[in-house]
Amino acid sequence: METNHKYHLKTGADGEAQLDNLDRVFGKASREFLNHIGLSKGMSVLDVGCGVGNLTCWLAEQVGPNGRVVGVDNDERQLEVARNRAQARRLSNIIFCKKDAHHLTDMNHEFDMAYCRWLLIHVRNPSVVVDNMANTLRYGGILACEVESSFSTFYYPTFPLYIKLQDKLAELLKKSGSDLDIAMNIFKICKGLQHFSFNARTSQEIIYNLDEAKAFTRNYCLLLDSMKDAFLENNIMSEKEIAEIREALLSYRIDRNTVIFLTRMTQVWCIKS
After folding, report:
1. Fewer CB in 10 Å around end: N or C, the chain?
2. Which pLDDT score, from 0 to 100, does residue 15 have?
3. Residue at 222 is within a domain
4. Is residue 257 in some structural domain?
5. Which of the pair, 85 or 220, is modelled with greater confidence?
6. Whole domain around residue 183: which residue ranges?
């Protein structure tokens, strides 16, 4: 993941389970999105901020042996996990390389599709990253970005300590320089691209199955655990406050009436002409 000042989640093998859980929740919508906008056999695809390679490996399977996929990330620990996954799946049409998303000029005009997910909220300058991704495309190429709407996840019925957690997450991300309005700002960024058509839609997954709701809540606790040091170092929450929120999540009464609205994703795609 290309970071802004500091990426607060665990990376590499330590963060692998967490990223796998996120992909289980959001992966179906991402895959449907990519198929909808024209992913096909034989394509050359760039995955920017590829992380541990969940979607990157899937992309390689979709484009087939006559296509190729390049995954870039600036964290070597993430890339090591991604390479091991590709090897385990015997994917020979995929490579991973360490690269800053702000510096992609050596890849200009190489790809049929350039894609990112959960990246732009973490980078120093989202518009520069989007411009760089656009420049990697051939004519007719597709720029595709999935960006999260900050704090659009909520439980129903809700509870006060969950609202407090959302407020504290916002405070931490602001301190890191994150663009909490990236889901809105992505429209201006992409509409400013020269010689690209613009399209957008939103996607929001909903959990209402009892077992899935319990699993998601456990994963939310893992997220809180992974960010504990960042909350403490930035004097945003005390150990006691973190423990109280964690206990509130674990003791939240999940029943057949529980509904969890997951993070709303803005899905943008632009075609180069």
Report:
1. C
2. 67
3. no
4. no
5. 85
6. 12-152+178-207+264-272
Q: What is the pLDDT of residue 4?
A: 42
Name which of 10, 52, 4, 1 is nearest 229 in CA terms.
10
71 three-state secondary structure: strand
* pLDDT of 265 above 80: yes
49-52-58-60 Cα dihedral, nearest 10 degrees:
70
CATH number at residue 23: 3.40.50.150
Q: What residues does 198 pair with on adjacent strands?
A: 270
Helix-then-strand count for the chain, H and E: 9, 10
Report the percentage of the chain scoring pLDDT > 90.
76
Q: How far is CA 15 from CA 18, 28, 52, 185, in A?
A: 5, 20, 9, 28
Instruction: Phi first, then psi: give them for residue 52, nearest 5 degrees.
Output: -90, 10
pLDDT digits (tens, 9 = 90+) for 93-142: 999 999 999 999 999 999 999 999 999 998 989 999 999 999 999 999 99
**In 113-209, alpha helices (H):** 126-135, 160-175, 182-191
More confident site: 94 or 256 = 94
Task: List the beta bridge partners of residue 215.
Answer: none
Instruction: Give CA–CA dist 109/135, Å, rounded.
Output: 6
The verdict on residue 234 lying in a domain is no
What's the number of domains the chain is made of? 1
Cβ atoms of 78 and 11 within 8 Å: the answer is: yes
Q: Which helix (H) or strand (E) holds 46?
A: strand 44-48
Angle at 72 between CA 68 and CA 76, to 5 degrees: 130
